[in-house]
Amino acid sequence: MKLSKKSDYALRAIIYLSMHYNKGAIQIREISANEKIPQKFLENILLVLRKAGILNSKIGLKGGYELARSPDLITLGEVIRALDGAIAPVDCVSKISYKPCSEEVTCVIRGVMLDIRNAITDVLDRMTFADMCSRVRDSMEKKESNVLTYAI
Amino acid sequence: MKLSKKSDYALRAIIYLSMHYNKGAIQIREISANEKIPQKFLENILLVLRKAGILNSKIGLKGGYELARSPDLITLGEVIRALDGAIAPVDCVSKISYKPCSEEVTCVIRGVMLDIRNAITDVLDRMTFADMCSRVRDSMEKKESNVLTYAI
DNA sequence: TAATTATCTACTAAATTTGTAGAGTTTATA
DNA sequence: TATAAACTCTACAAATTTAGTAGATAATTA
Fold first, then answer.
1. Which nucleotide has the shortest C1'-to-CA distance from A37?
2. Dist. CA A15–CA A74, nearest whole Å
3. Distance between A71 CA and the closest CA of chain B, angstroms
4. Which candidate from A76, A84, A92 shows the least CB-CB separation from B112?
5. Which of A2, A106, A112 sits opposite B76 (nearest CB)?
């Protein structure tokens, strides 16, 4: 039931981009340095997110990435699905990669897994990056710190 | 966020043992055949469950495994933890394998992951194998089938 | 004693995760 | 229009985890 590094990095990168929304394109190098994510790895991740329609990119000098939509229209669930695929613990209760199992009707494990999938997506599909930004600002106030890391 | 084969097999095996509770020891071979689980793999799994205090075993002729407690005192969460360790998506919100992360106080991802961990354990730590047995019986009635498979 | 059944350690193979390398393409701007 | 800066793309590689196997050992029953 682990969150992959890929998704972890993706969430952090998008929080970073959300905190800098509407300030123009931001380079991979900057995100990588600030969030301490291996740059080459991050390249792959951001590419996937662009192809998923979550980010826009500009090539060339002064290029970089920015959100394709405002932070309140991007959910954590969307990002995690883009990178790791289905959130459901088993495919027979997955929306995006459904595969029937042998004894579906009588399978009682399936019922529980469906409950779990719903519990997880209730959180992830409701939570937007606008929410995440509010939380970052809240906790920064409390801490009276101005170090911007969204590290896990 | 996947359920491992190990946990899947373990759940099925314990449902099988729960359905046969108080009928004496049951051999690995029987469970393996009925639930279509590779026997050698199942041996390892049941051994772990015994060491975790979930099963008792008897060696020798007419030996086998049985539940160490009644099915209503064993939860799915306990079984999954015994085999796969922590249920939490990241260690910094795990009860059984907690490790602090670098920026814990300001980490906003942590907050969400904590919500998810709680949502998952709410399901898994409440659900007992007595509940699972009721569900099996319910769905068997509905299906008017007498094939006993708890397959996923 | 013989057959049966769990125990235990170690190993292997496959899949997945976590990266890295390097050549190519596009663009701003001097 | 040259050049440096940035993303794009494909492929590879190392590390870790998952899934499964092998085979010898120990305990028990009849």
1. C19
2. 11
3. 15
4. A76
5. A112
Å separating the CA of residue A5 from the C1' of nucleotide D15: 14
Compute the nearest-CA separation of A60 from chain B (Å). Answer: 32
Residue that is written with structure tokens 């354990």 in the block: B121
Let me know: does B8 contact A109? Beta carbons within 8 Å: yes
Q: How far is CA A1 from the centre of its chain?
A: 16
- Token code pair at residue A75: 């959910």
Condensed to tens digits (0 to 9), the pLDDT of residues B27-57 reads 999 999 999 999 999 999 999 999 999 999 9
Distance between the alpha carbon (CA) of A6 and the C1' atom of C25, Å: 26
Phi-psi region of B148 (alpha: psi -120 to 50; beta: other; left: phi over 0): beta
Q: May I ask the CATH architecture of the domain A1-74+128-152?
A: Orthogonal Bundle (1.10)
B13 vs B108: CA distance, rounded Å? 39
Domain boundaries, chain A: 1-74+128-152, 86-127
The 8-class DSSP code of residue B97 comes to: S
pLDDT in tens, A101-137: 766 445 899 999 999 999 999 999 999 999 999 999 9
